Amino acid sequence: GENVEQHPSTLSVQEGDSAVIKCTYSDSASNYFPWYKQELGKGPQLIIDIRSNVGEKKDQRIAVTLNKTAKHFSLHITETQPEDSAVYFCAPSYGNNRLAFGKGNQVVVIP
Amino acid sequence: DSGVTQTPKHLITATGQRVTLRCSPRSGDLSVYWYQQSLDQGLQFLIHYYNGEERAKGNILERFSAQQFPDLHSELNLSSLELGDSALYFCASSQQGGSGELFFGEGSRLTVL
């Protein structure tokens, strides 16, 4: 199966600063790369995704960049706000279009 | 609100018992996925159903089983429960069975004492 690693496991940032979390994966056939956000007491929610024919995608304050050669993709959050505090999961596709979730990154935005 | 409904939200039971978790997918979604979330293992894929048929199995124990009914709701049955089965169980749905957005419910928290 797919091996997925997310680093750092916990990231604390000052409000207004940028946060970057990285996801590495092992399956070179992966072609779909989403990021999910999980707030306390809720289920994960898709915040941004990218497919392998694109290197970067932006949506307001969040962006995802993909490096297929190195087999990693990253989530960038600019101008962080307290509501960005959550656990973020990457979930690259593998096999028969299944998603392999990483163990998550805890992001803490300090007001 | 994702549109996915899971019941019960919380469940406390004893070792050796059997429980059933229920999931109603978003209207029109044919695929239902079950995931287990524990503190040290993240989100573990258990099983995927598409329009009533099992499509893929992940790390699902033999003591666990699932099904998807003609009205597309799904049930996850957990039997001979052990302490280690305590976890959050999430159901997610999607329109198709391929790679695309999954819509997660709020989960069922199972505590085995």
Keywords:
heterodimer; A: 111 residues; five-stranded mixed β-sheet; 12 strands; globular; B: 113 residues; mainly beta; seven-stranded mixed β-sheet; four-stranded antiparallel β-sheet; 11 strands
Structure described in brief:
Chain A is mostly beta strands and 111 residues long. Chain A has strands at residues 4-7, 10-14, 19-25, 32-38, 45-51, 56-59, 62-67, 72-77, 86-90, 93-94, 98-99, 105-110. Chain A binds chain B through residues 31-32, 34, 36, 41-46, 49, 89, 91, 93, 95-104, and chain B through 2, 4, 35, 41-45, 48, 55-56, 58, 90, 92, 97-102, 104-107.
Task: Return the structural class of chain A.
Answer: mainly beta
CA-based gyration radius of chain B: 13 Å
What characterizes the major β-sheet of chain A?
Answer: 5 strands, antiparallel
Radius of gyration of chain A: 13 Å
Structural overview:
The complex is a heterodimer of chains A (111) and B (113). Chain A is mostly beta strands. Chain A contains no helices and twelve strands. Helix content of chain B is 0%, strand content 53%. In chain B, a hairpin with a 2-residue loop joins strand 5 (42-50) and strand 6 (53-57). Classes of the chains: A mainly beta (111), B mainly beta (113). The interface between A and B is medium-sized, with 24 and 24 residues.
Write the layout of secondary structure elements.
The complex is a heterodimer of chains A (111) and B (113).
Chain A: E1 4-7, E2 10-14, E3 19-25, E4 32-38, E5 45-51, E6 56-59, E7 62-67, E8 72-77, E9 86-90, E10 93-94, E11 98-99, E12 105-110
Parallel strand pairs in A: 2-12
Antiparallel strand pairs in A: 1-3, 3-8, 4-5, 4-9, 6-7, 7-8, 9-12, 10-11
Chain B: E1 5-7, E2 10-13, E3 19-24, E4 31-38, E5 42-50, E6 53-57, E7 64-68, E8 74-78, E9 87-94, E10 103-104, E11 108-112
Parallel strand pairs in B: 2-11
Antiparallel strand pairs in B: 1-3, 3-8, 4-5, 4-9, 5-6, 7-8, 9-10, 9-11
